[in-house]
Amino acid sequence: MNNTFNGGAISDQVVNQQWRIIGPSSAQWSDIKEIFTQLYIVENRKLKDVREILSKSHGFNASEKMFKRRIFDWKIRKNYKAKDKEIIAKKVKACVSSGQDLHSLSFQGRPVKLDRVKRHYRTDKRFSRLLETLSHSPEEDDITIDEPPIKEDSPSTATGTLCPWRYSASNSDQDEMSLQYDNDPSNVTITRHLSPPTDFYAVESTLFHTRDAIRWHFTSFKPLKVKELVLRFPRTVSEEVRTGRIDQASEFWLSLYHGLHHIESGNSMHAWKAFDKCCQMVQPLLMSAPLHLLSCVLLHFATSWQGLNELEHHLLDFISSMASSVVGSEHPLALAFGMIATADIRDLVVESIMDLVTQGYKSRRKLDNSSLFALRVDQIDMLRKRKKFPQALTLCQQLVKDSQTMRKKRYRTALATLGRIFADQGEEYGVESVAHRILDNEASDMANANSGGTTAWACEQLGSLSLNRGEYVVAEAYLRRAVEMTVQRYPNRGPSMVSLTERLATCLQLQGKRTNTGTLRGNGQLSTGF
């Protein structure tokens, strides 16, 4: 009897174990992941509704516990963290400032849940002003706030009505309170006049001025052409700009890039030459491409220069003062530069301002417009510099896709942008793959072979990777090519010519070859000896 019972118990255990393992396979879960994410995250459906849809439409059956386990494994999260809400708040403010539809906002690849953001606004009075805007959203008609309209150029005040008291308040360190009595002594009016927090007010003002500067740029601004720049600024317009091999904004970008690189490498003489060149280009840029100058500033000063605060402030102050001198101290562009330079809010506004500029171009220019393409690259590089890799990767993948219908040179630039994201994350194989794709595309584009810095960047990356792996012959070939293109003055967003020649010299020394890094032949090759 006991044996039978034990045998029955064992059989029941086997049956239970078999029942537990019944369910979709890993491959089936992988196949359904994208559809599940679309229903659960993007369309914001409840889990029970998603299960029903997948069961009826796709024949996919799994328990709620199985789904929750997969949600945990896939790291899918519906709720916002406090930090996420702060980020979304900035995006909402930028969207409101630019006059865009709030319901077109997205965060981490999915639409923003404005109802959850509104709850955050209710608990954080810094965003009381945005709450008034969001209260008119059709998503929640039950939210009503009795507040008078607030002017954009004045400190905001939040008011509410509580019977029999009329009360006006918002957070402030110092407030002024006054009491007013009507004919009825029981009805007392308490009015408090307050100013918003300093940092939020500064951010608000900066975005407001930026929006006006963008509107000015596309309505009344008349940019100077290259010929006019050459006539007015003969000493600051280089031969590359005159011949169209590079535009003024890109040259300014590269000068700042290499100047900072020289400072970090200890080459102060080369650094000061680069920064001096940048300062000379500020005035021509204000008259030819002011929004691109703004994007360059946002990109290079997106993060603070560690140990170089004085130099950083000096450069920003110079750009701000030059903007005031060229367009006027009360011009919105000058005010935006001034706020970026003087207020300690750059970390709070750089992403929103860059998004405003990019969206301004997107709404007024075709997708293949060169200025728009350059701004999209700058926006990705800025996010990469701030270590916002998921957002940068999402934008870059779309840029690579869009660039496939443009000129091949644009496609190589988009690939190089993707490669820099991989490089910053230490993904060597990703960098290597992208670099080879650039060289393959360049080989098939005979009309523009070696026409830009992306090829030099690809050769420099492949040379450095080969050097680290001990493949000195291969490394020498790639580094020589990178040096030759840099000597021929092809712009390169990678190391400067000095760094490249030093790296090539190291490669040659490891092979037992002698070289003089200071001697360059007329054809751009580094002279070497044995």
Report the major sheet: 4 strands, mixed
| Adjacency order of strands in the biggest sheet | 3-4-6-5
Mass-distribution shape: globular
| Approximate helicity band | 55-70%
Distance between the termini: 93 Å
Number of strands: 8
Number of helices: 23
Radius of gyration: 30 Å
Q: Kindly name the structural category.
A: alpha+beta
Write the layout of secondary structure elements.
Layout: H1 2-21, H2 26-42, H3 47-58, H4 64-73, H5 82-98, E1 106-107, E2 110-111, H6 114-123, H7 128-134, E3 159-162, E4 165-168, E5 176-181, E6 188-193, H8 198-219, H9 226-232, H10 239-242, H11 248-265, H12 268-288, H13 290-300, H14 309-327, H15 332-342, H16 346-362, H17 370-385, H18 389-403, H19 408-424, H20 428-443, H21 453-468, H22 472-487, H23 497-510, E7 514-520, E8 526-529
Parallel strand pairs: 4-6
Antiparallel strand pairs: 1-2, 3-4, 5-6, 7-8
Helix pairs in contact: 5-8, 5-16, 6-7, 8-15, 8-16, 11-12, 11-13, 12-13, 12-14, 13-16, 13-17, 14-15, 16-17, 17-18, 17-19, 18-19, 19-20, 19-21, 20-21, 21-22, 22-23
